[in-house]
Design goal:
By secondary structure, this protein is α+β, with helices and mostly antiparallel strands. The protein folds into 2 domains: 181 residues, 2-Layer Sandwich (Chloramphenicol Acetyltransferase); 207 residues, Chloramphenicol Acetyltransferase (2-Layer Sandwich). It has 8 helices and 15 strands. The strands form 3 sheets. A 6-stranded mixed sheet has the order 1-6-7-8-3-13. Strands 9-15-14-12-10-11 form a 6-stranded mixed sheet. A 3-stranded antiparallel sheet has the order 2-5-4, with no helix packed on it. A hairpin with a 6-residue loop joins β4 and β5.
Length: 421
């Protein structure tokens, strides 16, 4: 697949960031974020709109949006700094021509090639630019808008709010339009307690030779899956059910490959904006994430019923938080309490649910995307990402596993019975 760079530039805020906002301190929760990026691609079909006009609209509206999301146009004071210098250096914006058809990039067999759609190495790790954009023009006339944000300044909901704001400005043509205002970011400014980010022990096991596949679970099949639960869990959510099924299937695949069960754990980030005593708006900028860790030490703990129960139990234990500092302390306490079991585990997985994420509704003025997906290859850890299907008819799961395990996983009869094939 030949890709040619057409242009690259830095898009700066339409007006300078005021002096009193020039330093943006990372919160205690931000400082716990992994040093990676949140990379998403929005695919738009060729609907006859002028590509040049699209590009001009995107650049102008991005510049306007950055006056509100000003940390995105800044730079870390240093690689390990706990604050952002909001110096209006700008967001990297690259245009590229791709000789491939757009369908090739959201086909399940080729989803590992998504990293080609991002500028520089922004799909994998942090570099100087905290946000990067690449507008990909495909041979079919469709476009793929790839956006990557440093996890240090925001989680998936922050990225969703930022892109929604940007799209809203593009759609209505003005930052001051009344329809744009609900998307304005909400900031919680914190004091800088340390000039450098502290080091925390991270539970992580590398995924060797990872491959990614896409699986679609229709609502009707998720209802069938719910009917399989026989324990006392009341109204298990689709995310609880599907997470348990995927984790169970991945453990079975690993067991099938090695010939024996290996203790495992599941690392599950949880969005907590609504778990503060004073609920935070969904457009609050930053990382508002706690974690659940499910340890599975023997085969008797791998039943669907038990896994759903464990996820529900961990979720109920999260409780409410008085402050970001307390939420950060709670997250560290969870990691420390589970560290011994996790370190004894031979296999590890993560699961991230972005169900409810507004990715399927991001309209820049030329319609909603036909598909939205996330680049996972750079995570280097086996896991699952759940998101709403484009038509709202179910949940789509992106699964990343070692190649040999994936061969077993994607042929699991029980898992496939709940899939749309």
């Amino acid at each position: 697949m030949m890709i040619y760079t057409i242009s690259r530039e830095l898009i700066k805020p339409a007006s300078p960031t005021p002096f009193h906002l020039r330093s943006y301190n990372l919160s205690p929760l931000d400082q716990l974020a992994p040093e990676m990026n949140v990379p998403v691609v929005f695919f738009y079909p060729n609907n006859g709109n002028c590509t040049l006009e699209k590009t001009m609209v995107l650049k102008k509206s991005l510049s306007q949006s950055l006056t509100q999301y000003y940390p995105c146009a800044g730079r870390l004071h240093s690689p390990k700094s706990a604050s952002v210098n909001c110096n209006d250096k700008g967001v990297l914006f690259v245009q590229a021509k791709n000789e491939a058809q757009m369908d090739a990039f959201h086909d399940s067999e080729h989803i590992d090639t998504l990293d080609q759609l991002f500028p520089d190495d922004l799909v994998y790790s942090n570099c100087s630019s905290l946000v990067g954009v690449q507008l990909n023009h495909f041979a079919c006339g469709g476009i793929g808008l790839a956006v990557s944000m440093s996890h240090l300044i925001g989680d998936g909901h922050t990225l969703g709010s930022f892109v929604s704001h940007w799209a809203s400005v593009a759609r209505y043509g003005s930052l001051d339009h009344k329809e744009v205002l609900p998307f304005n970011p909400h900031f919680i400014h914190t004091q800088l307690t340390n000039s450098m980010r502290p080091k925390y022990k991270v539970i992580n096991q590398k995924c060797v030779n990872p491959v990614t596949r896409k699986f679609m679970f229709p609502n009707s099949k998720l209802s069938d899956l719910r009917n399989k639960i026989t324990n006392s869990i009341r109204n298990p959510t689709p995310v609880e059910l599907l997470t348990s099924l995927l984790y169970k299937t991945a453990m079975a695949a690993a067991t099938n490959k090695s010939g024996s069960f290996k203790p495992s754990y599941l690392y599950f980030p949880v969005e907590i904006r609504n778990r503060f005593v004073q609920k935070l708006p969904q457009n609050t900028m930053g990382n508002f994430v706690s974690v659940m860790i499910i340890s599975t030490m023997n085969t008797s703990e791998t039943s669907l019923d038990m896994l759903v129960s464990e996820i529900r139990k961990e979720r109920l234990q999260l409780g409410k938080f008085q402050s970001m500092q307390r939420a950060a302390e709670n997250r560290k306490e969870i990691l420390l309490s589970k560290l011994e079991d996790a370190e004894s585990a031979k296999t590890s997985y993560w699961c991230l649910s972005l169900c409810g994420f507004p990715s399927n509704h991001v309209d820049f003025g030329w319609g909603k995307p036909m598909d939205t997906t996330f680049a996972l290859k750079g995570t280097n850890m086996s896991g699952f990402l759940l998101k709403d299907a484009p038509n709202g008819a179910g949940i789509e799961a992106l699964v990343i596993l070692e190649k040999e395990n994936m061969a077993k996983f994607e042929n699991d009869k029980e898992m496939l019975s709940f899939c749309q094939t």
